Amino acid sequence: MKAIAAAFIITLVAVLLVGLQQFRVIALRGEVAVETQARQQAVAANLESQSTITTLRAEIDRNKAYQADLNSRLKASEQKALKARKDFEDLKRKSPAVRKWADQPLPDGLRGKPAAGKDDHGEARTPSTGSM
């Protein structure tokens, strides 16, 4: 009887140990599945990030080229403006009519000030000449 009870207890312990091992295996498989899914999501997010980085780098290159083009256009415009100023100064020196025109003050409206002679309604007042 003792032998049967001992065998029964040994069998029971063995079954419990096998059951615990089986439970641990199932739990580990679940963890592996979760980790695999998380890894796949991380890889997908990484690929999307790499794609975004590539797109942004291409955009940076396009912006640099555009900026270089704008800088060269600006430099050309500045050179043209400098030449135009120099030509105007030469013309002012050489032509009395241009010198007289250039020496006149700008109207208020062109100097950033409100134009003189406006009433409350924003309409320009006409000066009276006296003989109309």
Chart the SSEs and their pairings.
Blueprint: H1 2-94, H2 96-103
Helix pairs in contact: 1-2
Description of the structure:
With 132 residues, the protein is mainly alpha-helical. It has one domain (2-102). Helices cover 77% and strands 0% of the residues. The chain has 2 helices and no strands. The chain has helices spanning 2-94, 96-103. Helix 1 crosses helix 2 (96-103). The mean pLDDT is 86.
Number of β-strand runs: 0
| End-to-end distance | 145 Å
Q: Quaternary status of these chains?
A: single chain
- Let me know the average pLDDT: 86
Low-confidence stretches: none
If you compute it from the alpha carbons, what radius of gyration comes out, rounded to the nearest whole angstrom? Answer: 45 Å
Spatial shape:
rod-shaped
Percent helix range: over 70%
Structural classification = mainly alpha
For the biggest sheet, the summary is: none
Number of domains: 1
Counting DSSP H or I runs of 4 or more residues, the number of helices is 2
